[in-house]
Amino acid sequence: MDQKTLEYMAERVDKARDINRRIKELEHFITYMEGKSRVHIHDGHGNGPRIREEEYKRLLISAKTAVLDAILEEIELLKQELEEI
After folding, report:
1. Long-range contacts of 37-42 (CB under 8 A, 24+ apart)
2. Which domain holds residue 48?
3. Among 16, 47, 51, 66, which is most buried by a count of CB atoms within 10 Å?
4. What was the pLDDT predicted at 45?
């Protein structure tokens, strides 16, 4: 096997590892979301709007559903990308 082939294979392995890492991170996020009663968008310093269940139950459910749907879609796209490697 020549050097160019080894480099190509190494790039594919690195890309597959990165995709697997991202899938696991998203799956962990789904598990972490379960049972949470707030959605918080912040600026990295803890500042930002919060959607609290006790005030906006329907909005919280909608926000969590939208995030969950987006995560599941991203996981499927990443799995497809992994299959193409």
Report:
1. 39/63, 39/64, 39/67
2. 3-84
3. 51
4. 84
